[in-house]
Amino acid sequence: MSALKLELKEKIIEQLNLEDLSVEEISDSEPLFGEGLGLDSIDALELIVMLDKDYGIKLADPKEGRKIFESIDTMAAYIEANKS
């Protein structure tokens, strides 16, 4: 598991208060919303704030978040390509 993916899982658990989940229980390719991890629109806002605060990435269009927050894999790829 890449260091960034591990870091993302830890941050998601901490940021969204998912204490009942462990890093090992979050699959890299599992959907974060809906059937997968079960996150909702409020969680998406928290993830947008996390991207800005921790990685210096500002999402101008919240619709971008749909693609970016599909899974840990897609988040990691986006951060690698766009972090400041």
Mean pLDDT across residues: 92
Question: How many discrete domains?
Answer: 1
Percent helix, as a range, is 40-55%
Radius of gyration: 12 Å
Element-level helix/strand string: HHHH
The span between the termini is: 23 Å
- CATH architecture grouping: Orthogonal Bundle
Low-confidence regions = none
The CATH topology is Non-ribosomal Peptide Synthetase Peptidyl Carrier Protein, Chain A
Q: How can the largest sheet be summarized?
A: none
Strand content: under 5%
Beta strands, count: 0
| CATH homologous superfamily grouping | ACP-like
Structural class: mainly alpha
Structure notes:
There is one protein chain. 52% of the residues lie in helices and 0% in strands. It starts with a helix and ends with a helix. The protein has helices at 3-15, 41-55, 64-68, 72-82. The protein has a single domain (3-82), classed as Orthogonal Bundle (Non-ribosomal Peptide Synthetase Peptidyl Carrier Protein, Chain A), CATH 1.10.1200. It is globular and about 30 Å long.
Key terms:
52% helix; 4 helices; mainly alpha
Tell me the layout of helices and strands.
Elements: H1 3-15, H2 41-55, H3 64-68, H4 72-82
Give a summary of the structure in a few sentences.
The protein is mostly helical.
